[in-house]
Amino acid sequence: MVRLNSHDQREMDKAKDLIDTGPTTEMGFVRNLFFGRLRLDKVLPYPVQDEAEAKRTKSLLRKLDVFLDLSVNPDWIDRHQEIPDRVIRGLASLGVFGMTVPQEYGGGGFSHTGYCRALERISRTCASTAVLVGAHQSIGLKAIVLMGTEEQKQRFLPKLASGEELAAFALTEPEAGSDAANVQTTAVLEPGSDHWTLNGSKKFITNGALAKVMTVMARTPDPANPGRTKVTAFIVTPDLPGFEVVRPNRDKLGIRGTWQAELRFNNMYVPTDRVLGEVGKGLKVALGVLNYGRCTLSAGCLGAAKVLLEMAVRRATERKQFGRRLGDFQMIKQKIARIAQLTFAMESLTYLSAGMVDRHEDDMMLETAITKIFCSEALKEIADETLQIWGGEGYMADHGIERMWRDGRINTIVEGATEVMTSFVALMGMKGVGEEFEEVLHAITHPIGNMGRLAEFARHEWSDVLVGHHADGLHPSLHREGDELAHQTRSLARCVTRLLAGHREKIIDMQLLQKRIAWATINMYASTAVLARLNWMIGKAESNGGVEHIAQDLAVGTSFCHDAADRADRLLDDLFHNRDNETIAVADKVLGFDEEKADESHEGDEDDD
Ligand SMILES: Cc1cc2nc3c(=O)[nH]c(=O)nc-3n(C[C@H](O)[C@H](O)[C@H](O)COP(=O)(O)OP(=O)(O)OC[C@H]3O[C@@H](n4cnc5c(N)ncnc54)[C@H](O)[C@@H]3O)c2cc1C
Fold this sequence. Notes:
Shape: globular
Largest sheet: 4 strands, mixed
CATH topology of the largest domain: Butyryl-CoA Dehydrogenase, subunit A, domain 3
Bound molecules: flavin-adenine dinucleotide
Distance between the termini: 33 Å
């Protein structure tokens, strides 16, 4: 057995904590892709709200739109770095702060889809306001709704749902950013005591200085493994002795109306009935909550993208240079097409994932992660290209584009930075295949007596793959795109097995290969979402007299799929033909890491002499 040093053992424990939180039941759509299975039955029909809830949502959105138009000034909020109390009170009176809280605790009892629609609308007007609502409802109070005891729900939810109190979610620490499992805040329960003692600090906590209730992650002793610790979630209120706001906010690039606090817990007294979920299962709480947060963050990105698309189209049709409209130039046409395709895909992904949340899918971690990566990266590109189309005017503060460019930038960093989530998608997707593959590798190295196992693998690998047929359940006009997806699913599975055969556990450090696998998968899942939505739109249009009025959506959506297929093909090809070693060698030189490596390889030379 391999002996691990203490650092590796710690990393292993953290990874195990995270992986243990994964679903044990049926595999989701994306995990299936890695096995070569295109399970369109998992995404069809495209989810839509039921009629009664759609009506209720529409009525709320109408009032919300009026309020946002009349009462929310994003430029003022950006300049003054605060969201006026009357904005918070106005949103509270509309019921926005408790939309997803069950009605028995004073909330609106809306679906996640309904809530995403509201967040999309708020972020069309003001990203800061959307983030304040999101930090409160998507992540701040969500753990109480999902994992709170009846007593905790009755005690905390009504005031949070009404907006009388704000909530926050406190995970990040100086040493626990992307490495969320590295929480250093400790919580200790003395035998026979009625309270935990918390010590440590948190940073970047949105609403942290305003919130009256927060979900806080801290490290607690693991009773099953003396000397080891696990993360536990606690409900913390600022009235607890030992709670300190070190700094309420910091000046920053975008979403300047929101406040990120630095908090400190000095022997903070936390009653035992404030544990949220089970002791030691805090990362499960965090990941569960972030599943929701990633979906609503995407809805926020979508709202901004829609406004930017409208602005890009307006400028390209109105502004003339060289005697022609900007939109007459092919390079601008290309930008407009790309912005429209990305926006369509963002919407398709956001509401597919929201629908999965509403259907209580068992395994949707990869789907929500992909939605978050795609929507945050797409908004970054859309904001940048729209600013470019607007030229010098775009750079000026008057039109709001530069603010949206700044505001949108946060989304690729928070709730899982793109790089971390990219690696997560590839590794979690390959994990199941890898486990099966280990057995197969064993069979290959010990073929005698394992021929049956090998034959079974060979059969399984190809029989699960959809070969050359139409993807079941899609309208005939989408068969070309469906077939392409089926073909790519097969390529992905082949590539994954080839990579695992070639690199085995070394794949864990090969991030450039992971990135290609992840982005091929992201493109495939985004196409799936687009096709599922188009399929639903066609069905609806046909029963309403014809598809002519959705001709633009069809053109935008199918062209997105063609482009995504090309991108995925290139990424999969590049897995085996690339200059990764050269790139890494250059980076090591620039970083000075090659000298470190040389020193390490010469360590002990003197002893040898
Ligand atoms: C405006 C704002 C609001 C926030 N709100 C909250 C909140 O309400 N609650 C909360 O708990 N936290 C919050 N955060 C914290 C946020 O979640 C973290 O900033 C985020 O997780 C990244 O951590 P970090 O900033 O420490 O970056 P680091 O972990 O230092 O990472 C920096 C960069 O390194 C790269 N990187 C890191 N790890 C890897 C890897 N394994 N592979 C490749 N590249 C990698 C990524 O590009 C990453 O962007 C907020 C932050 C900001 C700026």
